[in-house]
Design a protein that fits this description.
The complex is a heterodimer of chains A (1020) and B (285).
Chain A (H helix, E strand, L loop, with lengths): L4 E2 L12 E7 L2 E7 L3 E6 L2 E6 L4 E7 L8 E4 L3 E6 L2 E6 L12 E2 L4 E6 L5 E5 L4 E4 L6 E5 L7 E9 L2 E8 L4 E5 L4 E6 L6 E6 L5 E6 L3 E6 L4 E7 L5 E6 L4 E6 L3 E8 L2 E9 L6 E6 L5 E6 L4 E5 L6 E9 H7 L7 E8 L2 E6 L1 E8 L4 E12 L3 E4 L5 E5 L5 E5 L6 E4 L9 E9 L2 E8 L6 E8 L3 E9 L7 E6 L5 E6 L4 E5 L6 E2 L3 E3 L8 E10 L2 E8 L3 E9 L6 E10 L7 E5 L2 E8 L2 E6 L4 E7 L7 E7 L2 E8 L2 E9 L9 E3 L7 E6 L8 E8 L3 E8 L4 E8 L5 E6 L5 E6 L4 E9 L2 E9 L11 E11 L2 E10 L3 E8 L4 E9 L5 E8 L4 E7 L3 E6 L1 H9 L16 E4 L5 E7 L9 E8 L4 E9 ...
Parallel strand pairs in A: 1-83, 42-46
Antiparallel strand pairs in A: 2-85, 3-4, 4-5, 5-6, 7-8, 8-9, 9-10, 11-12, 12-13, 13-14, 15-16, 16-17, 17-18, 19-20, 20-21, 21-22, 23-24, 24-25, 25-26, 27-28, 28-29, 29-59, 30-58, 31-32, 32-33, 33-34, 35-36, 36-37, 37-38, 39-40, 40-41, 41-42, 43-44, 44-45, 45-47, 48-49, 49-50, 50-51, 52-53, 53-54, ...
Chain B lengths: L10 H8 L7 H11 L7 E5 L5 H9 L6 E6 L9 E5 L5 H10 L5 E6 L9 H22 E12 L4 H8 L3 E9 L8 E9 L9 H7 L20 E4 L34 H8 L5
Parallel strand pairs in B: 1-2, 1-4, 2-3, 4-5, 6-8
Antiparallel strand pairs in B: 5-7, 6-7
Classes of the chains: A mainly beta (1020), B alpha/beta (285).
């Protein structure tokens, strides 16, 4: 028997030698700026210390055993921290060194803390008590009350030389202002409805700002007790407020926005809105000494920095050019402006109605003519390259002109290949190495498209030209070129894709492949090629419908045909996508939403810039010069607005992500993949209430690298599992959603493509696919997956998933009773195959599916057979008093194991039970072996097997326990630790290559990463 | 209990409307009663945090007419119910106790129940704490109202500190059970604490529990090894297994037309009513 070890394993602290919490990504419950460069953050029970100027973590330290750090207040030489009933003090001088810390536990919840006029700490508790702490921070000197003892949701203190004033936010909507000296209420502020969630004094203590359940912000004059103004704007509850000296207020809340308000002329107006957290709720808010840098911490675990002065590290150079001014500036009469492009960060080329091409240098603010042709009068089309300062113009006769804007004498005119072609309707400039390419489409839709290659050396010369067979109803919208060979891929305005290999010597080259409606029938707005090998490329496509995808195209060796395969498909939560590119820190996409233009880093899930431009129906041009330099030009109200964004070289990085996080809602499923894209990390999929599936890497040090966030489900994720070979990921949710995702690993990238969804048969939005089991198998010589899904209406469905056909074929439907099925598992011997379920009536039930599976996999006739009869259960046993919330089949090192299976289950009744299914004369029968009735103090939500005979349990009581399954099927508790993850719901384990420790992931309201040393193996 | 998309999804929600209950929580009390026979020989009942009044409805329908005095207390107004005396009052206010005792003619209560819950914020620790405080307020009142041997039933959140609550309650009652009615979703942290056999402690004062709360330690260093004394209450699932299941999805019988039912009792004005109005007419920006 192993001795029971009890401990607290919160991040950074070793609970026992075998359990070590490494990292926590969850609600950031407090933030405070200290000194000029330090930001402190309460992340669970741990304090993270950042140098926000450098964007670095300096230190992470565990402070409290169980409580989350909910407040930090900086004093003269001491920092006070608190959370729940815990309180502690840190000497500022040793903040960055090893320091001793004592956790004091009061019996009341601490709502607010601060320092009085004399430099002593004060705290206010939920029962409206004010505690004066001695100057050595070791004793409570005095407790003040005001006689109103009702429960508070918020409090704040203000101190002058002879008194401490408390503002107490009650649950009934009133705010009580009371004096510590008189121990009496000074005034009662009435106006809010519902609980007061936060309140703050102004710096001089004359005013107060408050927010409540009614979603309004109120400013109060404390002399008259009058409400001066009410601010509306948040679409959900408001949690945090800051009152700055200049009557500026900052607020954050449940709608995940941060708002800046100005109180002016008796009005409280919202002047800025920042959106940069995912999911629900921003819990913490702080402002630096400069009153300019703001930090927010969300339920998503992210810490962000914002700059109130709108002076981010990115320098924004913006100017507006009025058309009339242009006309005046140009000395020659050039006519009115038709189109424009950016040629350099500081130069723009404009085509005019009467055939001129003029260049604006924004540094010298000078205009010059760079080209003129009467052929361009009346009709012309102007395009440019992202990385080259050339302009490309097409005319009404089909001619194309290429001009170097740096040296206009370097230019070339290219005649159309066909005699009759109509006007140039589209030009797509491409480039590679030292070559420029131009793809041209003409007004007459049947004319072959032209493809010109130009050599750029001292001059500009045509290398070759070829005609490409035009595809019918194919207005060209985008194109890209294979990085190593002359293969181009063209996208149309109607969602079609065509590929051409230019290696052939035919007069007119035919397409090797053409596919319609590739993502949808919406415009393919951009194409980006990634090299795999010759004749094999990955293409990144963006669509005006707001989706983007990655496809793989393989050309046949004779280049006559090509195949297209989807690797990835995802939809942005915002607007249309007009373009995309890979930058060093991730995939960047841009487009329009409502009336603004946005640039979004999809990998980091954060906005890089946005500009209210009035929407997409206007001329605009976006160019990226380098990972930190880009420009957006657009026309608005007969003016041209230029927004240049560039790296200022300032090392501080406001508007940035200081700390990366995870889901913004409770994680409901987490699973380590059997494969990885990085030897040094686990590949992990997680699903949450936010309906998203996230892929990330978890490194040995517990650090997280987000890979992608896919949005396909419309309800919270219930289940997530990989196939044994890691080639597919399955996910389930409400509305009968059950999706199979194809997994592709390309270097460090991992792609997910929703290859198929199970058909939806009812219109019940609440019909949840609670769990499922997948078995890799062989059908007709091909790899197939035998799948069982279980539902909240007691239905059990058996499917065969055939990847080559991308379909779920329904084999059989069974029904348990009328209750909800929570969990499912398979167990099998050489001869038989069984399904096990745990349901809300506390029963565990087993079916022998051998015949059904046999019929499905072996008989060719079943292709046509409609459905196979679902058998009656072989046994059903009442194991728990209420729902079976977790269930696993445990491997037991036992010779009899083939004939006997050990089932460990956890219930809503706090119980963990051991049940066996044993073969007795050709039939499996159940036996109740053992039960720990009070295994946990609340619902046992998850179980996992660590090694043979060792079972880990997680419950809503936030305890993680390890049980040894003894040979007599009894469970013996060997480890009991506490996790900072509340609403603890799911666990998964895995091992990084060459690592001795097992990594344990715990999901719930946040994600915790632990290391488990497999001491049980070493025979300790 | 308004009209919303939930109308389609929860069977108990729909049944509550069909049977004229003001909230689906009525079924929770009915199922608790079927397990614990809460209403046997009961003549004086107090329902705390009673709005909108579904538990009071259950009480008035379950207890024979005229056999019992039912007092329902809430800060919010409760629409009148036959056989129920409603009291708009704060349960933490000392006068409330006096007023209830007056209604009972100075006699103690047989059972005190509370289905109250706070505004849930999403910060689980805080929500559980506030719920525990609400429960302690109800318990303070209950200990001053109950006869020896009386019962106390209240909602709890089964979170991380639930074991502390169990140990506190077991000092005051012979038997403490954590019960989960089938009509309460397994996915919710909600459960009910059923305390039977009240044993008054000598020298108990109305403020006793609160005073215990207020006795904050003055020497902070003495609190460093704050030992937790937790206990686990036995768990009982209640309601028959053949009862409807709150987690399950039920198909409507074929041929039955889905009718949207009007709520039995329109919701009282929520605090964010103005914000919703502003959102609707587009002035929230």
């Amino acid at each position: 028997m192993v001795a029971i070890k009890q401990g607290y394993a919160t991040d950074g602290m070793t609970a026992t030698s075998d359990f070590k919490a490494i990292q926590f990504y969850g609600p950031v419950t407090s933030l405070a700026f200290v000194r000029s460069n330090i930001l402190l953050a309460g992340r669970g029970s741990n304090l993270s210390i950042y140098d926000w100027n450098l964007g670095q973590v300096l230190k992470e330290v565990n402070l409290f055993k169980r409580s989350k750090i909910q407040g930090i207040a900086e004093g003269q030489s001491t920092i006070m921290v608190w959370g729940a009933c815990s309180l502690g003090f840190i000497d500022k001088n040793v903040l960055l060194e090893e320091f001793n810390f004592s956790e004091y536990i009061l019996r009341d919840w601490i709502l607010a803390g601060g320092w009085d006029y004399h430099g002593n700490a004060c705290i206010v508790t939920a029962h409206n008590l004010l505690l004066h702490i001695s100057s050595d921070c070791k004793r409570v000197e005095k407790i003040s009350t005001c006689g109103v003892g009702c429960i508070l949701y918020s409090a704040s203190i203000f101190s002058n030389s002879d008194d401490v004033i408390v503002a107490a936010g009650t649950v009934f909507g009133s705010i009580e202002i009371w004096s510590s000296k008189n121990q009496a209420v000074v005034s009662s502020l009435k106006g809010h409805e519902g609980s007061i969630f936060n309140l703050k004094f102004s710096k001089n203590g004359r005013r107060l700002v408050s927010c409540s359940d009614d979603r309004s912000i109120r400013i109060w004059d404390l002399c008259s007790s009058q409400c001066l103004a009410v601010g509306w704007g948040h679409s959900a509850r408001i949690w945090q407020l800051i009152y700055l000296g200049d009557d500026t207020i900052i607020s954050t809340g449940e709608d995940s926005t941060t708002r800046v308000w100005r109180f002016h002329d008796g009005m409280l107006n919202c002047v800025q809105v920042w959106e940069g957290h995912s999911g629900r709720s921003i819990w913490s808010l702080a402002v630096a000494e400069d009153d300019n840098t703001v930090s927010t911490g969300g339920a998503d675990g992210r810490i962000r920095l914002w700059n109130r002065a709108n002076k981010p590290s990115m320098i924004e150079d913006r100017r507006t050019i009025n058309f009339d001014d242009v006309a005046r500036s140009i000395t020659i009469k050039c006519g009115s402006i038709k189109q424009y492009i950016a040629v350099r960060a500081t130069a723009y080329a404009f085509s005019t109605m009467i055939g001129y091409l003029v260049l604006l240098d924004t540094v010298e603010n000078s205009w010059k003519q760079i080209y003129y042709s009467p052929a361009l009068a009346g009709y012309s089309i102007l395009k440019g390259w992202d990385d080259k300062p050339f302009c490309c113009v097409g005319d009404r006769r089909g001619f194309v002109y290429i001009i170097d804007s740096d040296d206009p004498s370097r230019c070339i005119t290219i005649a159309p290949l066909a005699e009759i072609c109509g006007k140039v309707t589209e030009i797509i400039p491409l480039s590679k190495d030292n070559l420029l390419y131009v793809l041209v489409q003409y007004g007459d839709g049947e004319t072959p498209w032209s493809f010109f290659a130009l050599q750029v050396d001292n001059g500009l010369s045509l290398e070759y030209s070829v005609a490409l067979e035009a595809q019918p109803t194919f207005p060209i919208a985008s194109a890209c070129i294979h990085p190593k060979s002359d293969v181009i891929v063209v996208g149309s305005r109607f969602g079609a894709l065509a590929i051409y290999s230019i290696t052939a010597t035919h007069a007119t080259i035919s397409a090797s492949g053409c596919w319609r409606r590739v993502m949808s029938e919406d415009c393919i707005t951009s194409l980006t090629a990634t090299y795999i090998d010759d004749g094999n490329i990955d293409i990144l496509l963006t669509s005006r419908n707001g989706s983007y995808s990655v496809c793989n195209i393989i050309l046949s060796s004779d280049t006559e045909t090509a195949t297209l395969d989807y690797l990835h498909l995802n939809r942005l939560a915002k607007g249309s996508i007009e373009g995309a590119t890979y930058l060093p820190d991730g995939l960047v996409v841009w487009g329009f939403r409502n009336n603004y233009f946005f640039v979004w880093n999809e990998t980091l899930q954060c906005e890089i810039m946005s500009e209210i431009c009035g929407g997409p129906h206007r001329q605009w041009n976006f160019r990226i010069y380098s990972p930190t330099e880009f420009s957006f030009v657009y026309t608005k109200a007969s003016s041209i607005c230029i927004v240049n964004v560039g790296d200022s070289g300032d090392p501080s990085s406001p508007n940035s992500i200081l700390q990366e996080g995870s889901h913004g809602r409770e994680i409901r499923a987490i699973t380590v993949a059997p494969l990885t894209n990085d030897r040094n990390a686990l590949l992990v999929a997680s699903g949450a209430e936010d309906t998203c599936i996230r892929l990330c890497n978890v490194f040995g040090n517990g650090h997280l690298r987000n890979l992608s966030v896919v949005r396909k489900h419309v309800s919270g994720i219930q289940g997530l599992k990989w196939s044994t070979n890691g080639r597919y990921l399955f996910s389930s949710a409400a509305r009968e959603e059950f999706i199979c995702w194809k997994v592709t690993i390309r270097g460090k990238n991992v792609y997910l493509y929703p290859i198929c969804s199970a058909p939806i048969e009812t219109d019940l939005p609440d019909l949840r696919v609670m769990d499922f089991v997948v078995e890799d198998t062989i059908y007709n010589g091909a790899r197939c997956y035998f799948v069982v899904t279980v539902y909240s209406d007691s239905a059990i469905k058996v499917w065969l998933f055939n990847p080559s056909k991308a379909e779920f074929r329904l084999l059989s439907i069974g029904r348990y009773k009328t209750c909800c099925i929570f969990k499912a598992a398979f167990y099998s011997t050489d001869e038989s195959f069984h399904l096990l379920i745990g349901s809300s009536d506390g029963h565990i039930t087993s079916w022998d599916l051998s015949k059904l599976r046999q019929a499905a996999l072996c008989s060719p006739a079943c292709e046509t057979a409609r459905k196979i009869k679902f058998p009656d259960p072989e046994w059903s046993l009442a194991v728990h008093q209420s729902g079976v919330k977790s269930l696993i089949i445990v491997r037991v090192a036992d010779a009899l194991a083939h004939e006997s299976f050990t089932i460990v289950s956890g219930g809503d009744d706090n119980c963990i039970a051991v049940t066996k299914s044993t073969k007795r004369e050709s039939k499996f029968l159940p036996s109740k072996e053992y039960a720990v009735a009070d295994a946990h103090a609340s619902t046992v939500t998850s179980l996992a097997q660590l090694t043979d005979g060792m079972v880990l349990s997680a419950a809503v009581d936030q305890h993680i326990k390890v049980w040894q399954l003894l040979s007599d099927s009894k469970l013996s508790l060997v480890e009991d630790t506490y996790t900072t993850v509340s609403d603890t719901g799911c666990v998964s384990t895995g091992s990084i290559v060459d690592s001795a420790a097992t990594t344990l992931l715990i999901g719930g309201a946040g994600l915790a990463i632990w290391h488990v040393n497999n001491f049980w193996n070493s025979g300790k | 209990m308004g009209k919303c998309s939930k109308d389609k999804r929860d069977l108990y929600y729909r049944k509550a409307k069909e049977q004229g209950w003001r909230a689906r929580s009525a079924f929770k009390l009915l199922q608790l009663d079927s397990e614990f026979h809460l209403f046997e020989g009961v003549s004086r009942v107090v329902d705390l945090c009673a709005a909108p009044g579904s538990w009071s409805q259950v009480l008035s329908r379950s207890l024979p007419e005229g056999s019992a005095t039912i007092v329902s207390v809430d800060l919010q107004p409760i629409a009148p119910l036959p056989g129920v005396i409603t009291l708009q009052a704060d349960i933490t206010h000392p006068l409330t106790l006096t007023n209830i005792l007056k209604l009972f003619g100075g006699e103690p209560a047989d059972i005190v129940c509370s289905d109250g819950a706070p505004d849930v914020t999403g910060l689980h620790d805080l929500d559980e704490y506030i719920q525990a405080q609400l429960l302690l307020s109800a318990l303070t009142l209950a200990t001053n109202l109950l006869r020896p041997g009386g019962k106390f039933v209240a909602k709890i959140f089964r979170g991380r500190d639930v074991d502390l609550l169990y140990s506190q309650l077991s000092l005051l009652f012979d038997k403490v059970t954590c019960a989960k009615p089938r009509s309460s979703r397994a996915s919710s942290l909600e459960a009910f604490i059923v305390c039977e056999g009240y044993k008054p402690r000598p020298g108990w004062l109305p403020e006793s529990l609160r005073v215990a709360e207020m006795k904050l330690p003055l020497d902070l260093e003495s609190t460093i090894t704050g030992k937790r004394e937790g206990a686990v209450a036995p768990f009982i699932a209640c309601g028959d297994l053949s009862d409807y299941d709150a987690d399950a999805t039920y198909q409507l019988e074929k041929g039955v037309q889905r009718i949207s039912l009007e709520p039995v009792q329109k919701p009282t004005a929520p605090p964010y009513k103005t914000a919703l109005e502003k959102k609707r007419n587009g002035t929230l920006r």
